[in-house]
Design the sequence.
């Protein structure tokens, strides 16, 4: 297993910190900071999903639902009841975690295709609810007027301030997840992935771990959703559809699911593809995603993170 | 055999297991005294691995009871049975190929050294200490089984003999009172078999009861205190190695009924 | 004008349910054919239906071919797509794990959807009904003749498949592959060819579903996903791998959806089938006609 070293994290942190300054200086990329906010939001989701898929060996094609629940709970509680956004974020985490537990417990007993379909069905049901319960969610028109975030009077009212907030969250989640992977919990997950009968025989409560990771990934997605809602001040159901769940899958597959860095790489590349490089070719977007996913599955099953390993293999020959 | 104080650590009573119309285990009963090495032998398909699977909780028996240290375990899930103190190895080695030798054994410590999700993620001092604890335990076990120089080796890279040792080491990390070894000598050459037998005796010397499935008769006769013979899911004989060696039904089962 | 009685209303829902259920049954049958031979669940199954509808629109409306020619042309073209899917997406995978195959068929489904969006845009397309749109009145219900075409085609497909699998050599070879691929290849059956055939057959059936349903509910580029999930629900409800189960499952889900939309809430129409799927998966994954052993033994 690839050890996740401290140096790359420090270097990356440095890069993230100076990036907005760089963007300000170079006009051509000055809008990149805004894109990077989205990259950060998506990273929060992909970090959790990567743990679920790569380490625990499960699949979810319904994570857009948790993203959406986080967003809508934050939106509804702040706009309707005027509650403090941070408190609402916390409530959203509790609600999403609870739903993830209720859905996860029966679902994670299923394997392979059954699990994939169950998560897909769940994701679509939640999407339908967002669209239908207009009394709460505003229906297809969405909800607007969602307040921004502020901390002790410090307003997060600019793109750059949001950038640092989001990436602060991302690094916290990243380090927490890395710690998990390198602990007994991470070992248990890898054991489950390698051989369930042996893990069982050694005392690992497999369903407990699967549910734990599932709920954890749902909580991260919920945080991402809340942050998203407060950033855009507007949400609508189309953001949280099946296609977004599949886009998350593509991010993980492209980056590589067996290494947490893959989550960051995948989220970064696909987000830039979506907002920047394919901006003028919207009709091709879906085809490109499909092609990327297919090519990665056939030729790079370990994702981009696995490329150094492949290259090493070539040079040895 | 270590000093046996006469009490049973494992009691199998009237166990029946059926697979799609086939009776894999039929009204099976026997006891294992604490501290002994008991062997299960029988021709292929006699139900030996099925017996291990039902003892260690892979699935419940259709009928019958299994009592470990006086408490019934036949309805418990595998990981709970491991918690109670029963561990096992597998007929076809089931190592965690995606981890190193050391990590495989550290996983075995899982059931005795519990870390919480939160303290692991936050890398709290408590979690760090427990990780160190597990590491030390694993190192000790690896030294005991003779793999001390291969900590960082990916488990998949080991030769078969060492893989089997590693599996035993991993099982030992759960601090079992009863260890079920499924064909520990299968596929091993003479030297490796000798090492394995010595290891089993050393494990028993530490007070751990051993339940052993094996085909290698030399090993069986050499280290077992008692033997149970299965054929077609039924117990056809039980007794000391000498008694079994000359038992007519055992000879018949292995050689066919022309003898 | 006749007054619509409650009985008539309910009968209306039933017929609609059986019609849309026939579509789900066809998708479910398609799932089963591929699953039986390969144990793969083809997430792109719904795209075959979508392509059937849109390509039919192309041949019949855009190019102007008469129905009798456009129909087989469409089926052949979609069958080719199915073959391409096997050759390009499934066959090339060197280390097929369950996760990889799931992702591969998802990738294929997005590719097909993206291509359809590129070619046809996001608008829904209509087809003229096969025998006109004058409604037939049966037991107080008002039925579009096209409904009967859909149900009729399902029956035809069932008959053809029964003959194929039970009476023809190729069909029996496919069944053999399903039961035991190793033994089948030992007696000389080319398993890879059988896999190809299973994709081709599923695509053809999906195409028929798409062609027959478009005059009723139109067709657009992104209909595939929901059809696939509901068709999967039908297959699982009936027992994955069982053809009578697929038919039964499809009709039941169609009926539940229709009655649910009519009596409870039309906005939640799609949710009914999904809820049924979840209930089946959570409580009886072997389905109505499947057996628990089969669902455990089938390597997943």
Sequence:
């Amino acid at each position: 297993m690839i050890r996740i070293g401290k140096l790359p994290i420090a270097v990356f942190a440095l890069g993230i910190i100076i990036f907005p300054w760089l963007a300000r200086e170079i006009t051509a990329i000055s809008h990149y900071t805004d894109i990077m906010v989205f990259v950060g939001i998506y990273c929060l989701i992909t970090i959790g999903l990567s743990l679920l898929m790569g380490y625990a060996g499960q699949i979810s094609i319904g994570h857009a639902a948790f993203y959406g629940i986080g967003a809508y709970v934050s939106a509804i509680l702040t706009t309707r009841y005027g509650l403090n956004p941070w408190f609402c974020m916390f409530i959203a985490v509790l609600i999403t975690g609870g739903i993830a537990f209720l859905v996860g417990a029966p679902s994670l007993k299923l394997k392979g295709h059954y699990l994939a379909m169950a998560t897909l069905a769940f994701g679509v049901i939640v999407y339908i609810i967002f669209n239908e319960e207009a009394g709460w969610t505003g229906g297809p028109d969405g909800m607007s007027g969602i307040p921004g975030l502020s901390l002790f009077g410090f307003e997060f009212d600019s793109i750059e301030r949001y950038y640092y907030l989001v990436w602060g969250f991302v690094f916290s989640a990243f380090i927490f997840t890395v710690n998990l992977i390198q602990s007994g919990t991470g070992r248990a997950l890898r054991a489950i992935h390698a051989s369930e009968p042996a893990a069982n025989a050694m005392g690992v409560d497999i369903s407990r771990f699967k549910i734990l990771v599932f709920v954890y990934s749902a909580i991260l997605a919920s945080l991402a959703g809340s942050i998203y809602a407060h950033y855009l001040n507007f949400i609508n159901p189309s953001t949280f559809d099946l296609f977004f769940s599949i886009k998350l899958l593509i991010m993980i597959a492209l980056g590589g699911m067996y290494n947490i860095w893959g989550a960051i790489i995948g989220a970064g590349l696909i987000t830039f593809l979506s907002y920047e490089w394919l901006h003028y070719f919207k009709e091709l977007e879906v085809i490109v995603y499909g092609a990327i996913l297919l090519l990665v599955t056939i030729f790079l099953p370990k994702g981009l993170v696995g490329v150094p390993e492949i290259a090493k293999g070539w040079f040895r020959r | 055999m270590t000093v046996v104080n006469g009490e049973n650590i494992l009691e199998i009573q009237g166990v029946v297991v059926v697979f799609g119309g086939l009776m894999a285990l039929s009204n099976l009963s026997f006891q294992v005294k604490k501290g002994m090495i008991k062997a299960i032998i029988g021709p292929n398909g006699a139900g030996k691995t099925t017996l291990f699977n039902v003892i260690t909780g892979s699935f419940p028996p259709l009928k019958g009871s299994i009592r470990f240290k006086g408490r019934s375990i036949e309805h418990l899930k595998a990981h709970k049975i491991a918690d109670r103190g029963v561990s096992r190895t597998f007929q076809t080695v089931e190592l965690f190929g995606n981890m190193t030798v050391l990590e495989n054994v550290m996983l075995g410590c899982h059931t005795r050294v519990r870390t919480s999700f939160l303290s692991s993620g936050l890398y709290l001092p408590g979690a760090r200490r427990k990780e160190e604890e597990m590491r030390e335990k694993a190192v000790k076990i690896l030294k005991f089984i003779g793999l001390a120089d291969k900590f960082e080796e990916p488990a998949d890279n080991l030769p078969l003999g060492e893989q089997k040792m590693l599996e035993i080491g991993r099982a030992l990390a759960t601090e079992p009172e009863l260890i079920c070894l499924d064909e520990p000598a299968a596929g091993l050459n003479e030297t490796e078999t000798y090492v394995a037998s010595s290891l089993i005796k050393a494990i028993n010397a530490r007070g751990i009861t051993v339940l052993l499935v094996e085909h290698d008769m030399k090993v069986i006769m050499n280290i077992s205190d008692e033997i149970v013979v299965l054929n077609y899911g039924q117990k056809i004989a039980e007794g000391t190695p000498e008694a079994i060696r000359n038992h007519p039904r055992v000879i018949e089962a292995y050689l066919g009924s022309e003898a | 004008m006749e007054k619509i009685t409650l009985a008539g209303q309910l009968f209306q829902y039933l017929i609609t349910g059986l019609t849309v259920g026939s579509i789900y049954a066809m998708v479910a049958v398609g799932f089963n054919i591929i699953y039986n031979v390969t144990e793969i669940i083809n997430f792109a199954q719904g795209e075959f239906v979508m392509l059937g509808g849109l390509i039919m629109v192309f041949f019949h409306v855009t190019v102007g071919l008469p129905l009798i020619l456009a129909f087989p042309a469409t089926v052949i073209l979609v069958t080719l797509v199915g073959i391409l899917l096997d050759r390009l997406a499934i066959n090339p995978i060197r280390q097929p794990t369950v996760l990889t195959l799931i992702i591969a068929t998802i990738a294929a489904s997005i590719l097909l959807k993206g291509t359809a969006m590129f070619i046809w845009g996001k608008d829904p397309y209509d087809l003229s009904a096969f025998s006109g749109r004058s409604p037939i009145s049966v037991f107080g219900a008002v039925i579009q003749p096209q409904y009967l075409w859909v149900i009729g085609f399902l029956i035809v497909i069932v008959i053809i498949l029964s003959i194929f699998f039970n009476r023809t050599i190729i069909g029996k070879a496919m069944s053999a592959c399903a039961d035991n691929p190793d033994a089948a290849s030992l007696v000389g059956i080319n398993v890879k060819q059988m896999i190809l055939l299973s994709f081709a057959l599923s695509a053809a059936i999906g195409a028929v579903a798409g062609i027959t349903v478009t005059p009723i509910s139109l067709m657009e580029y992104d209909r595939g996903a929901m059809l696939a999930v509901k068709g999967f629900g039908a297959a699982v409800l009936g027992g994955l791998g069982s053809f009578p189960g697929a038919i039964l499952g499809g009709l039941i889900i169609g009926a539940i959806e229709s009655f649910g939309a009519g009596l409870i809430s039309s906005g939640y129409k799609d949710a009914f089938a999904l809820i049924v799927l979840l209930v089946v998966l959570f409580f009886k994954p072997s389905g109505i006609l499947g057996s628990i052993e089969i669902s455990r033994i089938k390597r997943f």
In short: The first strand of chain B starts at residue 8 and ends at 19. Chain B has ten helices and ten strands.
